[in-house]
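Section 3.1 - Work completed
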Amino acid sequence: MTYCVGLLLERGLVFMSDTRTNASVDNISSYKKMFTWSRPGELCLTLMTAGNLATTQAVVSLLDEREKEPGARQPNILEVKTMFEAATMIGATLKEVIATHSDNGQGADSTFQATMILGGQIGAGAPRLFLIYPEGNFIEASCDTPFFQIGEVKYGRPILLRAFDPAMSFEEAIKLLVVSFDSTIKANLSVSPPLDVHVYRAGSLRPGPTFRLKQDDPYLETISTGWGVALRKAFGDLPPFEMPAEA
């Protein structure tokens, strides 16, 4: 399983993904699920993946191979003119890979399904964030839906819904994501550090701070312990339930 989140902020984009994959309880590995392409001063794109590992690796490999052949007949991820075009290209590549591996060659066979989050900025356009489905279609984040999750989404979603603010700083956004990931990690063993992070500053048109929070990172431990204490205190501060009088 996987957990990845992309946030659309007023000041840019924040991405976080775990690195755990598992084919069974005794076959657990770590793989990178976040990928970035950039042409400094012109575009910067970040992709996060969830689902069948062979499918997602094939999509990223195809994008990389085609990027190395400028002018080739196949589309080049670094030659797209808009974020919409980038989302369309990645969606088509995902659909192509699934169709190639599917038994009947059509549609999104559940065995090979994958979903992706694409975010970035091209030229003078605004930063944009997309959720791409196995069928190749996609939706875009907006002021009403300012973040996307893929993978094991349910455990970390409540904190995002309650605390996310598009005006928050990058530092606040990362803290919020760490809490969301901690809740997911506590509830599902198929999600685990290391956690990959990429911060994109609007208008920079180049990758921003990119780093990895490892299993033993002191900040992860501080947030995990502190969040547990804060929840217990908040619960204790709530008014008690008053039992109705017995008839």
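Second construct:
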Amino acid sequence: MALTPHQRTVLNYITEFQSKRGYSPSLADLAIAFGVSSKNSVAKVVNTLVAAKQLEKDPKGRIKIIALAHGEEGIAPMTLPLFGPIAAGFAAPVEEHAEELITVEQYLVKDRTSTFLLRVKGDSMIGAGIYEGDIVVVDRSKQPKAGEIVVGILDGEFTLKRLKRDKGKFYLMAENPEYPDLFALEELKVAGVVVGMMRKMVV
């Protein structure tokens, strides 16, 4: 199925948007980019591109990340060898061969379109091994549960804490005894659940 010039332009915009930002544009983003007032018009173009097998959608209807062919511009995932396991207690014989090749994204990210990174500031989560300057991997599609570390929105302000529940009421708890538990005066929302953490070692 041959694409019209406008369809090709939309497809190129989506590809470039994903390459630069690491996630897909929403219909609202596309409407703004192409100067239209209704999302329906861009939705029709997107659906046409899906029918033409130029795009795919995830179960929630969001545009999937386009897999670039070898040699095309974009951010290619870095594949690294995974060795192990390694003993954290007594020494073990050396394993000379990698178990497999993985990418950091493959290991930490379940759904790229719903995942973002957040740099940590402060020392309220040091008891959970999260320090200032660390980068946490946050999944905004994961259903939060009591006991998980989350990005909470407490009365409109963002904070990284552990989600707790007492007598049916949710609140946020720091992993540092110097910080008090946080209860919402009006509203507590969860922007995402922490599913991983990265730290650059100083040598």
